[in-house]
Write a sequence for this structure.
């Protein structure tokens, strides 16, 4: 009993409860047909949301007003540049990956420069940089769709016993990031800044350096997502990052991270990402029209957040 | 007298040499007001516009024909852009509009200023403007009619476009109308793929496990390759997937065709329709009679024309047709 009570106090548990219920509803509706395959598909697609969700989580944790809106365009830029450099050749994989990370690094540096040097609020800074980044991607790729190197395509779509390999990798990565958040100086500094930036500064934390690292981390993860996503979906496209703008924020919030900052967790991001995918799948399976689907998605998300954040408010 | 005769001779010569390129519009300026550039179709549209209009400028058909794209795909922004074009004194404005009715005010101002307005793809409803519209409903219906020639019937999966957009509703209505007339088909699932390959892949992968055997997939273009990948990932047999005009879709089709004789068709709107709008604007400035409402012909790719279309499309681009003045005249006269 105490275990259940303990569990119910964890903010992240609710995204998993929501995920399970939505999955169950789908399974009941279809009479159990393909229920295991749905989980496998959900793992595949949730992986990408989780990658950017983790970056977004660190940014949001640093306190009110901190959010990275340049994630979608960074995904597009990184994917487009990496695919073009590699040009479908396995031999160029390492180079392509390095270039992709360089894109992320550049975006992170640029974002932070806007925020710190020009003192632009993060929302505006990352939004305006996203226009510049997407324009760069357009100018560079002209909507070009180049197939990924076969090795990358295989790796991103490979499965072991129905479990996507990439999902396993990212689950392990999430575990590492969870340790980083709760057990390392950097992670604790992020939490401290989110709770009270001034107190954190007085306690001797180099607030600006931590913020700098956080924006760079978010951009790097967005670039990583772009790299894998282009491998997974057979090439980069200009609008491939589009749906990750709201998704990256939604999974963080549904996962039980406080929008006000200073309180966050990693497992919830996985639960929320799975939940979001299964929710759309459920409504598609029910044959709900687009209007009803959007309304239901909104209502269910509000419900989950309300329950998850209930004891907090 | 001599002067007149000379002029007449020059005119005659121009008519004979340049075919249809009359000199009358050589001082005219035509602007393109475009609301969005963030996908490969729009990129191809702008590239076609640039190619055809630079040639037209070089040939002295018009003085200039610059293209302007708004950054935000916002109605207010495009309205302001059109007002700027009025002030800059363009003779004609060609519009791919962000909204069918919200730009009507700005379009009316342009008409009142004596400017010819031609809208295409994203058309405007203001009566004074010319419209080059796409019969999206017929496009949807064509797909089902094609399926009827290939299959005895079966379950269909429908991939729709972007929810809430007029085009999506129209194509889908056409598909459903086609299914009504061909009751051997049944739509057992419907997802929104947003005309994007990755979104379609995600949506199809989600719904697929719960679906019975699928005989064919009806699409709206841009989503065919994603659907194929979702079927492959789920380990299900590849159904007949109606394709769009993207390079990746045609390339996949070609690979399948070579490997196992896979046959399908593709129906789409060529991005070069922008150049049709350009010539229509030029013809109106030239004093020709043009109906207020025109319909764009579809670009259909069949099993036989696939290789040719693929060869003419650059990797990452979309199958395209650019219009010449003669082609535009054929459309206008309905030939």
């Amino acid at each position: 009993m105490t275990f259940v009570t303990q569990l119910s106090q964890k903010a992240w548990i609710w995204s998993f409860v929501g995920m399970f219920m939505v999955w169950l509803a789908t399974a009941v509706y279809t009479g159990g047909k393909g229920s295991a395959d749905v989980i496998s598909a959900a793992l595949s697609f949730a992986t990408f949301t989780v990658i950017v969700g983790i970056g977004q989580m660190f940014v949001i944790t640093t306190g009110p007003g901190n959010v990275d809106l340049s994630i979608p365009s960074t995904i597009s830029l990184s994917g487009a540049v990496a695919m073009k450099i590699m040009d479908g050749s396995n031999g160029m994989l390492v180079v392509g990956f390095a270039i992709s990370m360089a894109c992320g690094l550049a975006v992170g540096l640029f974002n932070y420069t806007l925020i710190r040097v020009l003192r632009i609020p993060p929302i505006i800074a990352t939004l305006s940089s996203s226009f510049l980044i997407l324009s760069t991607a357009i100018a560079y790729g002209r909507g070009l769709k180049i197939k990924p190197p076969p090795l990358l395509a295989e790796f991103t779509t490979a499965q072991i016993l129905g479990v996507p390999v990439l999902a396993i990798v990212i689950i392990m990565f999430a575990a590492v990031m969870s340790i980083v958040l709760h057990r390392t100086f950097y992670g604790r500094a992020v939490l401290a800044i989110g709770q009270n930036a001034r107190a954190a500064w007085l306690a001797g934390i180099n607030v600006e350096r931590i913020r700098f690292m956080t924006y760079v981390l978010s951009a790097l993860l967005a670039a990583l997502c772009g790299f894998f996503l282009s491998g997974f979906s057979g090439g980069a496209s200009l609008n491939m990052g589009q749906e990750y703008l709201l998704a990256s924020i939604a999974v963080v919030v549904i996962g039980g991270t406080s929008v006000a900052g200073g309180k966050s967790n990693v497992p919830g991001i996985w639960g929320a990402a799975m939940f979001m995918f299964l929710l759309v799948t459920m409504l598609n399976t029910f044959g709900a029209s687009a209007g009803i689907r959007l309304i239901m998605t909104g209502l269910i998300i509000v419900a989950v957040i309300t329950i998850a954040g209930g004891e907090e408010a | 007298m001599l002067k007149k005769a000379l002029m007449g001779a020059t005119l005659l010569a121009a008519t004979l040499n340049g075919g249809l390129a009359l000199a009358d519009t050589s001082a005219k300026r035509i602007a393109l007001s475009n609301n969005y550039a963030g996908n490969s179709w729009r990129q191809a549209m702008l590239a076609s516009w640039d190619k055809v209009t630079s040639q037209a400028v070089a040939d002295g058909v018009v003085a200039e024909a610059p293209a302007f794209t708004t950054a935000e795909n916002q109605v207010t922004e495009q309205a302001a852009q059109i007002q700027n074009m009025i002030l800059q004194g363009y003779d004609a404005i060609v519009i791919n509009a962000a909204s069918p009715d919200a730009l009507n005010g700005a379009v009316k101002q342009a008409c009142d200023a004596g400017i010819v307005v031609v809208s295409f793809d994203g058309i405007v409803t203001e009566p004074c403007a010319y419209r080059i519209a796409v019969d999206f409903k017929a496009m949807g219906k064509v797909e089902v009619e094609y399926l009827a020639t290939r299959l005895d019937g079966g379950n269909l999966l429908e991939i729709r476009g972007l929810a809430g957009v007029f085009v999506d509703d129209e194509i889908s209505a056409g598909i459903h109308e086609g299914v009504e007339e061909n009751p051997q088909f049944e739509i057992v699932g419907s997802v929104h793929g947003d005309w994007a390959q990755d979104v379609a892949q995600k949506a199809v992968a989600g719904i697929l496990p719960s679906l019975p055997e699928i005989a064919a997939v009806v699409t709206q273009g841009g989503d065919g390759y994603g659907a194929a990948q979702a079927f492959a990932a789920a380990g299900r047999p590849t159904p007949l997937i109606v394709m769009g005009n993207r390079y990746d879709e045609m390339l996949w089709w070609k690979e399948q065709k070579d490997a196992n004789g896979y046959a399908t068709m593709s129906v789409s709107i060529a991005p070069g329709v922008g150049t049709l709008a350009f010539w229509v604007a030029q013809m109106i400035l030239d004093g020709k009679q043009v109906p207020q409402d025109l319909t764009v012909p579809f670009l259909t790719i069949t099993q036989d024309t696939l290789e040719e279309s693929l060869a003419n499309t650059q990797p990452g681009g979309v199958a395209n047709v650019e219009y010449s003045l003669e082609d535009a005249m054929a459309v206008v006269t309905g030939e």
